[in-house]
Amino acid sequence: MKYRINLLPQKETPLTEKIVYFALNYLRYIIVITQLVVIAVFFYRFQIDQKIIDLKESVDQKKEILQIVLPLLNQASNIDKKTMAVKDIFIKQQTFQEMLKYLLSIFPSAINLTDFEASVDSLKLTGVSTDSHQLQSFYFLLKKDNKFDNVNLDSIKKIENGYSFKINLNGFNKDK
């Protein structure tokens, strides 16, 4: 067995030698790792830049699509408004037609109209009746059928050839 005994005390290494030793042995690993991190960040930056470019192109494409589609949407909105207006007109015409059809179906033959005013859901009848019972039954039939919300006999006068009258009919309900 061999022993090695060193009786000389070890010399204290100066700080500069320690720094040089550290720099030569460990700093190169730190530099290599730092360079790898920098390269990884550099490639990651390329990926992020490419995504940003793709997103900008996508936004530009969508802006162009909106610019193309916006006039079409405005035109479709205008057509929709016109269609709704036409539907309202058709509904008003159908209601008015049903109102006149109902009135003509119950109108007695002994009554002659001298004036007839019509609006969307109301009628004003002015006329002459030769038979008071026919006028009375016409008035009560209008009340009883309840097709109009308001049935008013405004005036009735006895004249030489019968009875002059004015009837106001308001609020026609075709469902009743």
TrEMBL record:
Pfam families: PilN. Keywords: Membrane, Transmembrane, Transmembrane helix. The keyword Ribonucleoprotein does not apply. The keyword Transmembrane applies. The chain crosses the membrane at residues 26-46. It comes from the Bacteria. PANTHER family: DNA UTILIZATION PROTEIN HOFN. This is Fimbrial assembly protein.
